[in-house]
Amino acid sequence: MSIVYFPKIYPDELVSSVLARYYAQSGYITYKNADKDIFVSGHRKIDKEFVKNIRPEVIEQLTRNMTFEELLEKHTMYPYYGRFLDKDRRDAAYEALRNNDGDYLKLFGGNNTKKTETRYMRYCPLCAKSDREEYGETYWHRIPQIKNIHVCHIHGCYFENSEIPMNSEADAKIKMAEGCIPETYDVSYSKKPVQIKLAKYVAAIFESPVDRKQKVTIDKFLRYKMSGTKYLSVRGEYCYYSKLYREMQGFYNGMEELENITQARMQRLMSGDYRGFEVVCMTAMMLGIDMEELVTMHVPRQSPEKQFDQKVKKLMDKGMSMAEVARKMNADPSLVRMSVTITQKKKAKGWRGGNIDNNNHIKDWDKLDELKLEDVKSTIEDLHGCRGTRPVKVSYYAVGKRTGISGYQLERMKKCNRVIEDNIEPAEKYNARKVIWALDRLEEENKPIMLWRLHDLVKLERKELVEAFPYIKQIEPNKVEIIKELLYMEDK
Ligand SMILES: [Zn+2]
User: Fold this and answer.
1) Tens of pLDDT along 205-216?
2) Helices first, then strands: H and E counts in the chain
3) Are the beta carbons of 121 and 107 closer than 8 angstroms?
């Protein structure tokens, strides 16, 4: 076959769209004839999102003015599915695309459309209008096909569904946009500035070049950007994804795009198990991450944990005590102690660090983590104290000592570590627990409750008692009156 005429591809046009125009405009009498010219024999299904089973002559036409890589980046949904994949998966998918053959969606790991729902090709009515004015026809753009974003980044209006199903099995024929997209425009504009801002943000990221050498994973990058925020623990090991989820709900309040955000998805994203393009973009925009930063994903070599450990070491080397370091870094003393222990162990064993997370040990740590979790939880409960037992301040050291887990092990047991961190309380709250315990004890011993007796038992100053008051109210509301009375009596 020799191709006499082949249409020029328009900006942001899908390859399937230009093929449809080729078919319609080349004067084929039946679809079958066009089919033979376009596809490698035996394959007749059009992949609307990618390039698949296309004859070399057609590829040649498509790449007249660009490289094949550019064709993939600018005229297929590759940047949508591929951008945030981990490198080896991205490579494998890219390889398949280069070979013009493969189950792309499977390779990209991604189709979060439920089997039962039909996705349709979408369009922006105002983009269609401007295409017709400029080119005399409209075409299928890529950006409206980004699944969970609903507004045009140029016009701020909602996308519309066409009647053309997206998945290729539903319709093997290529239908060109002209003829499918109505010429009467029914435009509904978004009234939410955040929704329009998101549309622009997403489009800008989608259109940026994909760095195929990128090795940094998206969860690592997001974690790095979260360090020092309320979403990440002080040493940076844990992401409080439920907090993140709640903030997303507030930030994108009332937007249809939220339907795609679930707590489980946020958790999977932050644990490196989910790479959905829209979820990544929405998280990044809420965190105030600059679009260019998200595209390049530069991360300092060191993890937040290592940065924390190094800072601790530096201050300790200057001669500061652990307590001073903790104050200076605004961190709990037990975290500083753990950091010091880890640094010493590494030094003693000559362990170089860094690769433990990638080797086979990780499964064993997970197992141990699971195994010890209940133990850790009940130990924390014990430490909090209840009737009869005096409270002990929850710390890594205290829990580690009682459960027989070393600091080195704890460092790698994510769930246990997190439960402990969540239960590390301010001194005032710990004092409140002591007061409650002391009051119970006095009651049990039938001793009249006097402030000096309380002092005797818990060694707290009056000021500390006052500071503990709000926590007493929180933990044991029925003790509030007694405390009030005690403090009031003292005033007289
Ligand atoms: Zn538009």
Assistant:
1) 999 999 989 899
2) 25, 2
3) no
316 CA from centroid of ligand 1 (Å): 58
Give how far Cα 239 sits from Cα of 220, 228, 434, 451, Å.
11, 11, 31, 43
**Tens of pLDDT along 429-466?**
888 888 888 888 888 888 888 888 888 888 888 888 88
φ and ψ at residue 135, rounded to 5 degrees: -110, -5
Q: Residue 397: CA atoms inside 13 Å, Cβ hemisphere, count?
A: 12
Given a contact cutoff of 8 angstroms between Cβ atoms, the answer to whether 152 and 115 are in contact is: no
d(CA 347, CA 341): 10
Please tell me the distance between residue 155's alpha carbon and the centre of ligand 1 in angstroms.
5
What is the C-alpha to C-alpha distance for residues 410 and 368, in angstroms, rounded to an integer? Answer: 10
Tell me how far the alpha carbon of residue 125 lies from the centroid of ligand 1, in angstroms: 6
**Averaged pLDDT for residues 155-167:** 92
Q: 84 CA to middle of ligand 1, Å?
A: 25
Could you identify the residue written with the tokens 């890529």?
A: 142
DSSP string, 349-372: HT---SSTTTSTHHHHHHHHHHHH
421 alpha carbon to ligand 1 midpoint, in Å? 48
Question: For residue 235, how far is its CA from the centre of ligand 1 (angstroms)?
Answer: 45
Surrounding ion ligand 1 within 5 Å at CB are 124, 126-127, 152, 154-155
| Residues constituting the chain | 492
* Residue type present at position 322: M
Higher pLDDT, 116 or 77: 77
Contacts of 142 (CB under 8 A, 6+ apart): 12, 13, 14, 75, 76, 77, 80, 206
Q: What is the 254 CA–ligand 1 centroid distance (Å)?
A: 22
Token look-up 């280069």 returns: 98
The whole-model pTM stands at 0.66
Cα–ligand 1 centroid distance for 77 (angstroms): 18
Q: Is 163 helix (H, G, I), strand (E, B) or coil?
A: strand
Compute the distance from residue 49 Cα to the ligand 1 centre, in Å: 19
| Alpha-carbon distance values, 301 to 217, 221, 272 (Å) | 13, 11, 18
Q: Report how far ligand 1's centroid is from the alpha carbon of 187 (Å).
A: 10
Q: Name, of 73-87, 315-329, 336-350, the range with top average pLDDT.
A: 73-87
Ligand 1 centroid from CA 192, angstroms: 16
pLDDT at 61 over 50: yes
Distance 121 CA to ligand 1 centre (A): 14
pLDDT at 491 over 60: no
Q: Specify the 3-state DSSP secondary structure of 121.
A: strand
